[in-house]
Write a structure and sequence with these properties.
The chain is α/β, with parallel strands linked by helices. The chain is 45% helix and 15% strand. It is found in: Membrane.
Length: 347
Amino acid sequence: MPPELSIVIPVYNEQEVLPLLAARLRPVADGLGTTYEVVAVDDGSDDLSPAVLVRMGREWPQLRVVRLRANAGHQAAISAGLASARGAYVVTLDADLQDPPEVIPEMLAQARAQKADVVYGVRSDRSSDSTFKRLSARAFYRLIRILSGTHAQVDAGDYRLMSRATVNAINSLPEHHRVLRFVVPTLGFPSTSVTYRRDERAAGKSKYPLSKMIRLSLDSVTGFSTAPLRAATWLGLLGGLGALALLAYALIAGALGQTLPGWTSTVVAVAGVGAVQLLCVGILGEYVGRMYAQLQARPTYYIAYDSLTGPATPADEPAPLVAESAPGAGEGVTPADEPAPAASRQA
């Protein structure tokens, strides 16, 4: 029988934090008094994370390991977990323990008591984050609200509980490069929230540098709003009006004999108009790129192995592999615990 609760955890190079995650998550899940599964999605890790997951799965029957052929990205890994999860309720949780798993019982209780399809985990205390990250996050959420009208929870990331109806709706969407923290609110399903204090990363380094945050921001804006296209139109109109005003000024000044030779005004005018044009072309390029990717209909991830159903192909069957253990990474992991990489990997 399918479990009542599935906990989806994207994993990418988290060998240091996985034992700490299991030590905190398993007592919480075991104490729920209901059936559950933990779906750990290995997003093409190139450290000992696959070996640590294999070892944890031998000691933890409810742990299910889904391995992707190649690194597909955080949002794609969550999508793969949602497609694989079987529970009536599904929780998405990052592996770094910044979002405490001890909040899951409260989420489940709120969903049952209020008949809510979505329970958001809202960070009431973000003192562990830098000032720049806190301010930029708040500004970004407000910008998304203004541009798209999407009432996404401020200070809510990817830590949430969703009903089976919500997960089925997400899985049915054909959208590529989707940002789930904005996709879920657009569904309009009944929701509530719980608050928690965001902690420091338990171990390892952040896998979300500034470049990935910028990419996520661009996907969010272009995926949920056409306001930038309208802005490009208005900028073009304003640029055209400015050019007409400059032309009128030049004609009048020429007729009055007040023209003076100089390159400053010419350079400023050309640079201004060129900047507006390049900005508009860049905005259009973002949307055209999204449409092109959508028309190609390429999957955003490829599953190589699922410990519940087995390998996707015989070549994906885990096999012993001799590897050097990193200091302090997955204590007790032996070379035989590490699955071999797929025979052919998709870039």
